[in-house]
Amino acid sequence: MSMQAELAATAAGRAGFLSETAARRIEAVILPLAALLAGMIAFAIFLAFLGKSPLDFYLLVYKAGFGTAFSWTNTLARAAPLLLAALCVALPARLGLVIIGGEGAIVLGGVAAGAVAMLMPGLPGPAGIIAMALAAAAMGGLWIGGVGALRHLRGVNETIASLLLAYIAIALMNHLVEGLLRDPASLNKPSTAPLPETWRIGEIPGLGVHWGLAVGIIACIASWVLIERTTWGFAARIVGGNVRAAQIQGLPAGLLAIGFTALGGAFAGLAGMFEVAAVHGSANASLAAGYGYTGILIAFLARHNGLAIIPAAILFAGFEASSGLVQRRLALPDATVLVLEGMVFIAILLSDTLQDRFRFLAFLERRQK
Amino acid sequence: MTDDIGLWGVPLAILGGAIRVSTPFIFVSVGECLTERSGRINLGLEGTLVFGAMSGYAVAYHTGSPWLGTLAAAFAGLLFGLLHGFICKLPRVNDIAIGIALMIFGTGLAFFFGKPYVQPVAPDLPAIPLGFWSSLPQVQAALNMNVLFIAGIALAFAASWMLKNTRVGLTIRVVGDSADAARALGINVNRVRLWSTAAGGALAGIGGAYLSLYYPGSWNEGISSGQGLMAVALVIFARWSPVNCLYASLLFGGAGALGPALQSVGVTSGYYLFYAAPYVLTLGLLVATSSRTRAMPSAPGELSIIK
């Protein structure tokens, strides 16, 4: 429906004060924002019922997530993996595939980076970083691209398959990190060998946040260009609208599905590499930090639009960054942010039912003329 | 170990594991089976299972009765099912996405309210020692059957019979196969799906109560390792038949017991890989039973995952 409808709308809608295209654009921004607000209000009511002050909660979130230069640094560092994890959901989603196992690609991407460091520690710094990035992206791409391939070749449901693979990935990581890839010196927390000092990824000058943030933002912008401004993206959107119609048009729906899932998985794998090379210094169980699951929510909030993922990821990074302070000050459990995320997620999906109301308004206005 | 039965311990432990581990699978998959037969999929049962485990444990701790706990878990699951069913009634809402959101929401709520219950000890659900005839402790342990396991077997057969032979079952099947046909018959499609989802949620809640009140028998944040989700996948493998769900659950329980069983006879390397066996098995079965070209036989026609 999208393309023809959009063209028809621009042709027909100019007469009205609120053209249909404009209405559609406004709707695409206002509806998710309203849903976000509704979710946050629902959570405020939830807190009030428990006798906690919602005002204190949101003030603390603001302070700990966005209030000071230090909190911004913390928030942006958390945003880096979330940006890439959200792309792992958003890119396949444009083809109509709901992939929720990005966590698996993050974890195995990190392990791949750790393994490269153990296999060829002799490489000079930049070459080592490139080798880690390639290995992590390839690993993540294979993992999630495999889900796309299963979907295409066998008709396996991608949502369930990807989540099962996430559990398998975490088991595989534990197996490797406690066995084959274990650094004997890591006693309390089994890890791969620490990366050579020159392989560590540093901070963006003046920002205090590692380069993963820049890579994440570039990946989001590139994904937006790919989807909205290239023939590949156009084909993907057609497939997402109606697979059978796309196939009749001769579009390679299967190849697109594999390609977009693999690309999303490669981004998630990179997120794991940055966690290893810029944050932890070696691959271990800390890789399964739940970024993949928060990424699902961010992608849905952003309506799978690469550019919108950037503010959405920063917002939820701020929520998660404030978690510690909220726990201490308000004596709330650490799952508080999870409840908030669940409520916002439900509100966002509920807002889908309000879609097209704006266009309906524009239609009415035109009829009245 | 006084009675050394050597490698025989492995199949015996797997049998025991199948009996112990399969119960949550039975309840969640039979529940999901009802939901999917009405044409909707609820991926949120993982969250329902975890919340059921928490609420069942909390109520059992406060009242001292594991049965009241199980009842509370069923009620909580019912509410989650109603929430899913109610939201999906609205136009243009995606039932798979809502399921994912409820998975996060249910787990989050369970962890949120469950924090104070990690330490206290709640009473366990009773088990029937059906291995009394044997002098071997391994046999006795393997055949120690929980009441809920037996209830689960009865439930699977009852649900199959209900779907085949009753008016309610027929209504659910018609709604699941063709919403238009159901509407033509004057059936309120949304209401049938709402209550099918609610029933599925209640059963998933009971499955959760089994986890926290019998095996492993305590509440903590790692109580479910994706059983709720695997049970959903299992329904596809079981071809939407509750009795097949029972058999598949037993198979899964056995696979889940493989790691601990091998460990008990001294095989410790690759522990994590054996731990992953149920997931690998689920995925393998999913791949083997799916098809690109043919619609799956006996799949409800309205189900979004097979379209």
UniProtKB/TrEMBL annotation, chain A:
Subcellular location: Cell membrane
One Pfam family, short name: BPD_transp_2
GO molecular function, one term: transmembrane transporter activity
Keywords: Cell membrane, Membrane, Sugar transport, Transmembrane, Transmembrane helix, Transport
Keyword Lyase listed: no
InterPro entries: ABC_transp_permease
Residues annotated as transmembrane: 33-50, 104-123, 129-148, 160-177, 209-227, 248-271, 291-318, 330-350
Membrane topology per record: Multi-pass membrane protein
GO terms for cellular component: plasma membrane
Keyword Nucleotide-binding set for record: no
Source species, domain of life: Bacteria
Protein name: Simple sugar transport system permease protein
Origin species: Allorhizobium borbori
Upper classification of the organism: Bacteria, Pseudomonadati, Pseudomonadota, Alphaproteobacteria, Hyphomicrobiales
UniProtKB/TrEMBL annotation, chain B:
Chain segments annotated as transmembrane: 6-31, 43-61, 67-87, 96-114, 141-163, 192-213, 219-238, 245-263, 269-288
KW Cell membrane (keyword) present: yes
Compartments, record wording: Cell membrane
Pfam assignment, any one: BPD_transp_2
Keyword Transmembrane attached: yes
GO MF annotations, alphabetized: transmembrane transporter activity
Membrane topology: Multi-pass membrane protein
InterPro entries the record matches: ABC_transp_permease
Alphabetized CDD domains for the sequence: TM_PBP1_transp_TpRbsC_like
A GO CC annotation given for this chain: plasma membrane
Keywords: Cell membrane, Membrane, Sugar transport, Transmembrane, Transmembrane helix, Transport
PANTHER family recorded: ABC TRANSPORTER PERMEASE PROTEIN (PTHR43370:SF2), SUGAR ABC TRANSPORTER INTEGRAL MEMBRANE PROTEIN-RELATED (PTHR43370)
Name of the protein this chain belongs to: Simple sugar transport system permease protein
Organism of origin: Allorhizobium borbori
